[in-house]
Amino acid sequence: MNTKIIIYDDNCPMCSAYTKAFVKTGFLDEEGRKNFNNVTPELIAKIDLRKSANEIPVIDTASGQVWYGIDAILELLQQKIPYAKAIGNIRLIKWPLIKLYKFISYNRRVIVASKRKNEIFDCTPSFNTQYRFLFMAIFLMFNTIMLFPLREFVLTKSIFASSAIAQLQAAHALLVFVNISIAAQLNKREGFEYLGQINMLALLVILLTIPLIIVNRYASSNFSSLNNFYLGAVATFTVQEYVRRMKFIDFFKTHPAIILVNVISMISFVCYLIG
Q: What is the mean pLDDT of the chain?
């Protein structure tokens, strides 16, 4: 019988998905996966709650030992994968694993933007400026680079056909400037939260266009109608997701003027590219 139990944040879809994968692949029993609001006080007493918000814990109910984060994952993998811990604990391997884990963990509420339920325990990860800035910098660079294939293979065969790459990049840079200017007017926590949500929204838009880029890159036919329809669907998703994310950070109530600026900026962005 497996005596290990993983305790996860059930308000985080990513946490829910990967802990469920441990059960499906046999690394844990059905009873070895519990969320923070469905565990006994005895188990809760064994863990560091603040640390658990940032690094998911695994408890061995037989020995009482607790592992967190990467150590917890390695402990589970070791049960079926020989030398998982030995390899994972090599310094040159473990250091990037820890950094990657923290990169995702500290930004997971920005990634999923999921509202807290009626929880007994608040599993919101600590606010970490370094990892939030890194998150935004990496994906801002990625989004900027992806505008080149997006324009070459998709936009040139759509209603945006007349827009040049310099025009597209200039419009994008202006949007970035506007959003940074907005964030600068807010307190540090709100500013980073706002930029994180906008950055993640832009990333989702780019990721959704990648299949279209691939189709247009390798197909010989002109898919202008398909491109326009697909871009319209992405635009509809973007509006819905923007509303959801601004509600998540309560900006409709606290900063309605920012919402107005965002709407004007996006309309201007589209009109400028259409020409």
A: 91
Beta bridge partners of 6: 33, 58
Which residue ranges make up each domain of the chain? 4-112, 129-274
Nearest-angstrom CA–CA distance, 60 and 32? 10
Could you tell me which residues come within 8 angstroms of residue 82 by beta carbon, excluding any fewer than 6 positions away? none
User: Which residues are 67's β-sheet partners?
Assistant: 58
- Write down the pTM of the prediction: 0.89
Residue 54 near residue 106 (C-beta atoms within 8 A): yes
